[in-house]
Amino acid sequence: MTELSLPLSVAADHPAYAGHFPDQPILPGVVLLDEVLHALAAQQGFAVGVGRIRSAKFPSPVQPGQALRLDYAATAPGVFRFAVLAGERLAAGGVMTFAATGQGAETA
Hints:
The protein is of the alpha+beta class. It has a single domain (4-102), classed as Roll (Thiol Ester Dehydrase, Chain A). It is built from 2 helices and 5 strands, in the order βααββββ. Strands 1-3-4-5-2 form a 5-stranded antiparallel beta sheet. A hairpin with a 2-residue loop joins strand 3 and strand 4.
């Protein structure tokens, strides 16, 4: 199983930080998963709409301005194990799947 990496970019002024939480902002998990979904879909040629989260955990928070890296590997056709790292710290991990019918479709 070959593991691949790519940078994830979430702007430090992303609107989701504003209300989550005042005085100590962290990136909501749903925003992080959306970034993973879009990155995997673009890299693998799948439509975003056929992506599904099989499992996800968030062991540590992402704060504004932190550099993020997505590490992922295919475990079966259309199935990817992923980890999002903030530096060397695991921020999120899980499994995302894509329906085979989404392959080669538009990612918008």
